[in-house]
Design brief:
- The complex is a heterodimer of chains A (267) and B (316).
- Chain A has two domains: 1-47, no CATH class; 55-261, Orthogonal Bundle (MetI-like fold), CATH 1.10.3720.
- In chain A, helix 3 packs across helix 14 and helix 4 packs across helix 8.
- Helix content of chain A is 73%, strand content 0%.
- With 267 residues, chain A is an all-alpha fold.
- Chain A starts with a helix and ends in a 6-residue tail after the last helix.
- By secondary structure, chain B is mainly α.
- Chain B has a single domain (81-315), classed as MetI-like fold (Orthogonal Bundle).
- Chain B contains 14 helices and two strands; from the N terminus they run H-H-E-E-H-H-H-H-H-H-H-H-H-H-H-H.
- Chain B has helices at residues 20-23, 30-60, 78-85, 87-117, 125-137, 140-150, 157-164, 176-204, 208-217, 221-232, 234-249, 253-258, 271-281, 285-315; strands at 62-63, 73-74.
- Chain B has a two-stranded antiparallel ribbon.
- In chain B, helix 2 (30-60) crosses helix 14 (285-315) and helix 8 (176-204) runs antiparallel to helix 11.
- Chain B is globular and about 75 Å long.
- The chains are: A mainly alpha (267), B mainly alpha (316).
C-alpha cells in the first residue's frame, strides 16, 4: 500500500508540475523558439523581455491595482456584513430569526448566471466603475453561514459571564466573541479574499478598460489581442496573474483549507 | 474561480439557536441593533440576488435587447418554444451534461482515490497536498489561458509528449470533441484539490475502531472500502456532490478565455456560456433569461432529488 502511495504521489506531482514547468519555460522564450514543433523543454535562449513587455506595454500594474481595490473593498464589506449578520442571528432576540437565516442561505442556491442579466440591466450606467463592480458582489451568504455555525458552537459560559458583568452587545461582540473566533474569522477572510480576487463573470461584464478591470479580465483582454501570436508574453502574464494568490496561498494555506472544510466534514 | 460556496442543504444539522435563552435577559433595544446588523446584508441580497431571480423569469417572457433603446416586447412563451424546438439548444444541453457529469465524476473519484492513497504517513505528503490544492486558488482565467497553450496542437506540451510516442496531437482548437475535452480536463485539473482536501480531512476523522474490527474479521480491502470506509464518508460525499455540481454548472472563466466565441461548432458552449452569448453578444436578453430560468429550474429539481436521496440514505 505504501508503494502505491508513493507512486500516486509521484504521478500527481507530475500531473501538476509538468504543465506549470512548460508554462514557465515558455514565458522565457522568444517567439521563434516558441513556434517550434515539437516544443523544446528548455529555452534555447532566455528571453525575460516577455516580462518587461507585460509590465510595461500592457497596463499590468493598473490591473493589479484594480484587483487589489476590488478585492479589499468587496472582501471587507462581506467580512463585516457576514460577522455582524451572524452575530445578530445568534445573540440577538428577534422574531423569525430562523426564517431570516434560511432566506440568507437560500441565496447560495442562486447561481451567478441567473443574476447577471438583471443586475447588468440595473447597473448598466455604472459600467466601468468600481461601484458597479463591487456593489452587486457585496452581499454575503456563505460567510454568514460559516460565522453563525461557529458562534453557535461557542460555550454558553463565556456569554453568561459577560452578561453577568453587565456587558452590552457591543462589548460582548468585541471583547468576548470576536477574540475567541479569530481562527474562523481568518478562514472566512482568506476564503473571501481568494474568491473576490478571482471573481470573473461580473467584472468581465462590467469592465473593459484598464481603469477598473481586474487582473483576470485584463488577462482576457490580452489573450484576445495576442492570441496565437504572442504566446511568450501571454504565458508571462498568466504567471504574473497567478503569482499574488500563489504567494498568499503559500503563507496561509492552512487557514484556506480550514475555511473550506469547515461545514463540509462532520464535526 | 467560481466560488467555493459551501452549500450545505442539510439545514437540519444546524440546531436552533441555544443563545435565545440568553437573549431573553436583554432589553428590547435588541430590535434596533438587529436591524442595523442584518438589514444591510439582506438589502444587498434582496436587490442583487433575489430580485434578479424574479426579474429573470419576467424577462424570459419578453423579447428584449440590452443595447437597443426599444422597450421590451411581451411575447409570452415564445422564447421557451424556441428553446425546446431548436436543435442547437439540445447540443448546448448535451455539452453541459458531458462537461458537468465528467467534472463531478472525475474530480470526486480521483479526489477520493488520491486522498486514500495519501492518508498514510508518507514523506512529502504535505508537499503533494499543497501542490494539488494550489491550482484551486488561482484564477481560472490564468489557468485557462495557460492550458490553452499547453494543449496547442503544434507547439504545446501535450503535442510534444505525444510526439515521443509517435502520435499526432488531436486538434484541440478546431475539433469540437477535443475542445470540450480541453476545457473539461482543465477544469478538473484546477478543482481536483478541492475534493482531495475535503476527502482527506474526512478520512482523517474516520473511526479507527471500525478499521480494526474489519482487520480482525479479515475483511478484504474492496469489501472494507464499500462497507466500512465509504459509508462513513457519506457527509463529505454528499457535500461534494452538491457543491461540485453547482460549481461546474457555473464555469465561465475557463471556457470564455479559451474559446471566447463558443468553441468550434459551438463545441464548448455550455448553458452558462449560451446565456452570456445570447444576452450580451446576440443582444437577446429575453432569450438568455429563458435559458437561465430553465437551468435554474433543473438545478432546483436536481438538488431536491439529491437532498431526498441523502435523507433516505440516512434513515437506513
Amino acid at each position: 500500500m505504501k508503494v502505491l502511495g508513493y507512486a500516486g504521489m509521484v504521478l500527481t506531482l507530475l500531473l501538476v508540475a509538468v504543465p506549470v514547468y512548460f508554462i514557465v519555460i515558455t514565458s522565457f522564450k522568444d517567439r521563434p523558439d516558441i513556434f517550434v514543433s515539437p516544443a523544446t523543454w528548455w529555452p534555447p535562449t532566455w528571453y525575460p523581455e516577455n516580462y518587461s513587455y507585460v509590465t510595461q506595454e500592457i497596463p499590468y500594474w493598473q490591473y493589479l491595482r484594480n484587483s487589489a481595490i476590488i478585492t479589499l473593498v468587496t472582501g471587507s464589506i462581506k467580512f463585516v456584513l457576514g460577522v455582524s449578520t451572524a452575530y445578530a442571528l445568534v445573540f440577538l432576540r428577534f422574531p423569525f430569526k430562523k426564517l431570516l437565516f434560511l432566506v440568507v442561505i437560500a441565496a447560495l442556491m442562486v447561481p451567478n448566471q441567473i443574476t447577471v442579466i438583471s443586475n447588468y440591466a440595473l447597473m448598466a450606467d455604472y459600467r466601468n466603475t468600481f461601484v458597479g463592480i463591487i456593489l452587486p458582489l457585496a452581499g454575503v451568504a456563505f460567510g454568514t453561514f460559516l460565522m453563525r455555525n461557529h458562534f453557535l458552537s461557542l460555550p454558553k459560559e463565556i456569554v453568561e459571564a459577560a452578561r453577568m458583568d453587565g456587558a452590552g452587545h457591543l462589548r460582548l461582540l468585541f471583547r468576548v466573541i470576536l477574540p475567541v473566533s479569530i481562527p474562523t474569522m481568518v478562514a472566512f477572510a482568506v476564503i473571501t479574499l481568494v474568491n473576490e480576487w478571482n471573481e470573473y463573470l461580473w467584472p468581465f461584464l462590467m469592465s473593459d478598460n484598464a481603469a477598473v478591470a481586474p487582473l483576470p479580465v485584463g488577462l482576457t483582454l490580452l489573450q484576445n489581442t495576442e492570441q496565437g501570436v504572442n504566446w511568450g508574453p501571454v504565458m508571462a502574464a498568466t504567471l504574473l496573474t497567478a503569482l499574488p494568490m500563489l504567494v498568499v496561498f503559500l503563507i496561509l494555506q492552512r487557514q484556506m483549507i480550514k475555511g473550506l472544510t469547515s461545514g463540509a466534514v462532520k464535526g | 474561480m467560481q466560488h467555493a460556496t459551501a452549500v450545505t442543504a442539510t439545514t437540519e444539522r444546524v440546531e436552533p439557536s441555544p443563545k435565545t435563552g440568553l437573549a431573553a435577559n436583554l432589553v428590547p433595544k435588541d430590535n434596533l441593533l438587529f436591524l442595523l446588523f442584518v438589514v444591510p446584508n439582506l438589502v444587498l441580497l434582496a436587490v442583487f440576488t433575489y430580485r434578479p431571480l424574479i426579474d429573470n423569469v419576467r424577462l424570459s417572457f419578453q423579447d428584449w435587447s440590452l443595447a437597443s433603446p426599444d422597450p421590451a416586447k411581451w411575447i409570452g412563451l415564445d422564447n421557451y418554444r424556441e428553446f425546446f424546438s431548436k436543435a442547437e439548444s439540445w447540443q448546448v444541453v448535451t455539452v453541459t451534461l458531458i462537461f458537468t457529469i465528467s467534472a463531478v465524476a472525475f474530480s470526486m473519484v480521483l479526489g477520493l482515490a488520491l486522498a486514500m492513497l495519501l492518508d498514510q504517513n508518507l514523506k512529502g505528503r504535505n508537499l503533494v497536498r499543497s501542490a494539488v490544492f494550489a491550482p484551486f486558488v488561482i484564477s481560472g482565467a490564468a489557468i485557462g489561458a495557460a492550458f490553452y497553450f499547453v494543449f496547442n496542437p503544434q507547439f504545446g506540451a501535450v503535442a510534444s509528449i505525444l510526439s515521443w510516442f509517435g502520435i499526432e496531437s488531436p486538434d484541440f482548437y478546431q475539433n469540437p470533441g477535443w475542445a470540450l475535452f480541453l476545457v473539461t480536463f482543465t477544469y478538473i485539473w484546477k478543482n481536483l484539490g478541492y475534493t482531495f482536501v475535503i476527502y482527506l480531512a474526512a478520512l482523517q476523522g474516520l473511526n479507527k475502531d471500525l478499521d480494526e474490527a474489519a482487520a480482525i474479521d479479515g475483511t478484504p480491502p474492496w469489501r472494507k472500502f464499500w462497507r466500512v470506509t465509504l459509508p462513513q464518508l457519506r457527509p463529505a460525499t454528499y457535500f461534494l456532490s452538491i457543491t461540485v455540481l453547482l460549481n461546474s454548472l457555473q464555469v465561465f472563466d475557463i471556457i470564455n478565455i479559451m474559446f471566447p466565441a463558443g468553441g468550434p461548432s459551438a463545441g464548448t458552449t455550455t448553458m452558462v456560456f449560451d446565456i452570456y452569448w445570447q444576452t450580451f453578444r446576440n443582444q437577446r436578453a429575453g432569450y438568455g433569461a429563458t435559458i437561465a430560468t430553465i437551468m435554474f429550474v433543473v438545478l432546483l429539481i436536481v438538488t431536491v432529488v439529491q437532498v431526498r436521496m441523502m435523507d433516505r440514505g440516512d434513515d437506513k
